[in-house]
Structures are given as structure tokens and as C-alpha cells.
Amino acid sequence: MTTLTIPAPPARSGPDPAGPPTPPARRPGLPRLLSGPGDVAYAAHLAHWGPLPAPADLTAEVDRAGLRGRGGAGFPTARKMDAVRRAAAGRRRPVVVANGAEGEPVSAKDRVLLARDPHLVIDGMLAAAAATRADRAILCVKQGQPELIATLTRAVAERPGGDVRLEVAPVPSHYLVGEESALMNWLDRRRALPTVTPPRPAERGLGRRPTLVDNVETLANIALIARFGAPWIRQVGTADEPGSMLVTVTGGVERPGVMEVPFGTPLVEVLRRAAAGPAAAVLVGGYFGTWLSPAAAAGAELSRAGLAAVGAGLGCGAVSVLPDDVCPLVEVARVARWLAGQSAGQCGPCANGLPAIAGALDQLAAGHHRAGVEADVARWSEMTRGRGACKLPDGAVHFVQSALDVFEDHVAAHRRNGPCPSVRSRTVLPTPAWDPVR
Amino acid sequence: MRPELSVDPIGCDGHGLCAELLPEMITLDDWGYPVLARREVPPHLVGAARRAVAACPKLALALRRDGSRTGPP
Amino acid sequence: MTVALETPKFVWYLMRGSGFVALALLTLTVGLGVVGVNRWKTGRWPRLVTAGLHRNISLLALCFLALHVLTATLDSWVGLGWLGSVVPFVSSYRPLWVGLGVLAGDLLLAVMATSLLRRHLRHRTWRLVHWGAWAMWPLAIVHALGSGTDATAPWGLAAVLASIALVAAAAGWRLHAGPTRPTGDGAAPDALRPTTRPLIRTGAP
Predict the structure, then answer these.
(1) Most buried one in A128, A194, A275, C186, CB count within 10 A?
(2) Which residue has the higher pLDDT, C148 or B25?
(3) What are phi and psi of C181, to 5 degrees?
(4) How far apart are CA A329 and CA A312, in angstroms?
(5) In C, which residues are within 8 Å of A437 by CB distance?
(6) Do residues A119 and A171 share a domain?
């Protein structure tokens, strides 16, 4: 099995040695989203960023900046804002929902952003609300983080009153809660079950009002666009994919965490900064994402186009390094089992197919499996894909299929020789239990 | 434009009457849930498709024509 | 509407006869309903046969019930009147027992109307009203027993007891089978049950 080895980075003393703070408008590079004052008080926020302007046509500016959603789907944000505004069109006023649910276990960017610079996200919410004429903006954050929730509640309370009612809503940690329609259902009815779309929340969401659901990182970008305009955004990144993104690096790395990089950054650069150890493969895009072999990872760039070239997508910008001393099939089987448990259980193909696939993967991980097991996984994957109301079955099947592609030799070795000889007790990919019912 | 079949995945409970009435287009997967071979209904099967839509106990099967629905609301 | 002259005897016999036929057909309908909801089928008896029979036999039962109600309305001895055919307990003859029959008839009308208009209702609404069938049928039986002397005659009693036995067996089978929605209720082919459903229906944190 080939391995990806990243040379150790030179010793550095800390983050950007920027000296006295330069106003972000004059600082050409990064960090941007993560360049906040480091103090969550509103006064510090204003001192650092300045007041939030109200541009005449923010949606057009967002369009010029080429902003795409940072939640995983990558939908053009301006189009969504436009759809919400058109759906509202003089009838009911829309709602802005900031999606900080972050049910993806290998992603931490949303909570890091919210903890560092909550007011930037709130700025984005208010700017988007102004652009769509919304009168309510709800910041959704995963429950079970009392300090963060307290920080956000304080931040919201610090804002002067205005046309828009600001709220903080803790949401369950379930994987599906971040799905747009499930989030709407949770906020409306306290049942985080996805529904069949159409209609999308942009047309009819919370309380049957047009709802703009955007990831918190997307909204923070909107706040930056409102202040500095599209040309400033385009100073970093690529021509087709301007701007920067937050990447979470976890797994077999010495310095896991969240970093901000321009689009088009080579994946190995991110791995170098995180001090990645020898890797059997890299998972890009979280648990709906794609496994990259060492060869593919070595040449991959972090952009939609760059990852599409190796058959992957950005997703929520999560990069997980699988070290070469754990059994990949054990990890994949465990995550598949976890994903199956995250099913809402509403749709037969998902509720039945995912556990079946997980069971088959267990057999592959245990080794000495009969040849039919691999065929079963393939058949059930085809049977499950696209036949649910939401994208959970599709994402899970994609994750499993790409794993079986990248670890094909490993599967064959398991069939011949049984399980990996040194079965490590540590687990790399997290499969958290969800919060208990309140 | 030909009418199209669609299954509401949340409503569907895998009863399987649709597959009995329209075997040319609907088969059941390993767990009894319908798999549509294709969505467009050829003219000679439209009658059977309508009967299949009416027979579903959960009204999870729908027949759309020109974007309008003749299935469940 | 009162009839000055007594109605002919055949009306009285037709009323009783059509009543028993309706009861028998309703018994079959309930039985077939359970066969359907328990998803029973064989190679030669697919689900659609059950569904078709359930629907058609219920419509036939409705026809006989209509005849039964019509003759009861016309019959001078029963004194049902047009109002009394839908409002229970207003007949002059054995108001309680006849009234229970009228109540059963009302429930049946509700069940059948909602079924015919199924496409325009939410599934939950339809299902809730359809459960009324389990109330309708016992009322029909009690009505049959108390409204006249036929039920105490050997043939009537045999018919009623046979009906009770069939529906009791059907009800037992239904209870034994338990929840039939396979998704998330153990249909997963291994030990993992999607236990997420109760968890994500949490109350406000």
C-alpha cells in the first residue's frame, strides 16, 4: 500500500507575524475570515472591522464576488438570495437562517468561526436580511456547547435593536440537522426530519416563509463583501473560484485544526501546515466526501475544479488524514455504520440499505469474506443511491464506493489473509454519539 | 411531453401494489420498495400507471403530466 | 313522513334480509382490510386482489345498506323517517337498537366518503377516519342483535356468531402482527436499528 508522506514543516513561532494590526482592507492576503480582533465584544469588533455598510445592491456584489455556499453544496449564494427575494415579493417577509449546526464530525470550521468572530457572522446575517428584506434572523448552533452558546447569545444581545429580530437557536447534533429542510422542520416543529424538496426553503421554509439558509462561513463572507466589495474578494483564490475557505484538518496530523486558505491551494500545502504523518489515504469533504489515494492527493488542489479533476468535491472543506498504521476497512466500516444510524428512517431504501451496506463492510473488515459480499455492497449501493428524500444515502454510498476504490488492494488482502494483523485499538475517524433527548 | 412517474420516498411504505399493477416499469428492491426503471410512461401503459397510482395505500406514487400532478397533493 | 296505510309485508322482510346481507358483506370487508394491512399475499393472490375485493365488497355492502335504510325509512312500523336514517335514536321503534345501527351507518358513510376522496385528504386524516371501521362494525352487530327477533332465531344467531368469529380472528391477527411499517422497525437486516427517529423528535433544548 502506497503512502503519502509530507515533509515536516519548518518550525514557526505562531500565526501570521503581522505586527501592528493592519486594517483588513489594506491587507492583501490571508487571514480574512479568521483575522478578527480575537475579542468577541461588539466594541472590539467595530474597532477592528468598522461599521457594517449597507450597499445599494448587495446581491449583485455577492454575485460579482462569485460567492458559493460553504456548507457543502456550493450553490451560488447570489442566486439563492435572489430566489428568496423574488419569492417574498411583497408578501410575507423572509427569514434568514445561519446554519452553524455542523453535524459533520470531522468539520470544526463553523464553531471555530463562531467562537472567534461571532459578530462577523451576525454582520452577514444582518446584511443578508437587509438584501432580502427579512425581518428575522436565526443563528443555529449545535447544542451541547454551553460556552459558545452563551457567547453567541451575548453577542446577539449586544447588537443595537433594528428592523431584524436576531435569535440564537441551539439544534441537535444529529448529522441530518444541517440539511436545509430538516433544519426548517426542527425550527418549526422540533422534528429534524428532512422533507421532500421541492419546494426548497428559499421558496417556502420556516413558517412557510421564504427562508435564506446559509452556512455561517458563507454569511461571514457576505459581511466581508458588504465591507470591501467583490474586487477585494477576488484578490485571492483563482479566477473561477475567488476568495478563501476554511479547512478543517484532522486525523493523522500533529497539528489538527482549522485554517483559512485561498481556493486553489494544493492539498499537500494544507497537509504540510498541519504536519501530517504518513498517510494511507486522505478523505476530502467529510463523511459525504471522497477518498483520495496518495497519488491523487499529491496532485490535488483545494477548489471545485481541482478536486473534480480527481473525482472529489470540496464539501464542507474537511480534510481527514488516514494514517498508514490503522486498518482502513475498519475505519470505513465504522463510519458507514454510524452514517446508517444517522438515517431518519423515513425512506425504506436508506433505512434498509445503509445498515445492509454497513453489515457487509463489517464482513470485509473482518476478512476471509466470501466473494459475494463485495457484489452485495455494489448492488445495495446502486439500490440505495438517489432513492431517499435527502442526500444522506447518496453521500454515504459515495463515501463507501470511493473507499472501496482506493482500498481495493486492501480488500483483496483481507479476503485472502483475514483482518489486519495489528488491529489498533485507536480510532481515527470520529463517530460521536448524539446528544441525549432533552 | 409524456407523463412521468415519481415515488414519494417518505410516504412509500413498500406495500408493493404498484409493482403488481405495473411490472413493466416498477420492480421491488431487496426490501420491498419500488424501483422505477424509467420515469416516462409510454402511452400503452398510462392506464395501468393510473391504476397503480390509485392503488397505492399511501398515495406515494404520482403521475405528472406537463409539470402538473395527478397524484397526491 | 307518516304513511297512513301499513306498508306491505315484503318491505319489512326486504329490510331485514338486506340488513343481514349488508352485515355479512361488511364482515368480509373488515376481514379483507386486515388481510391487506398485514400485507398477506401469495403467488396467486397478490395484494391488488385483496385491495380490489376490499373496495368492491364494501361498495356492495353499501348498496345493501342503502336498501336496508330505504326500506326502513319507508316502513311504517319502524317509523324511521328520512331524518332518522342519518340521525340516531329518533325512531319510534326500538330507538336505542335502531339508533346504534344508524350510528354505524353514519360511521360507514364517513369511512367510505373519505376513501373515495382519498386523493384530496392528508393520509393521516384518511387513516384516522378509517379506523372508525373498528367502531362501526361492533355497532352493526349490536344493532342486528337488538333491533328485531331475527338474531335470536337459529339462522340469525348463526350468522351473527359467524361474523363475530371472523372479525375477532381478524382483529387478533392484526394485533399479533403489530406495526406493519417496515422502515425503522426492525426491517433493517442486522442488529442496527435506526434509533434516530425518537432522538431527533426532541423537545426544545
Answers:
(1) A128
(2) B25
(3) -75, 110
(4) 20
(5) 198-199, 202-203
(6) yes
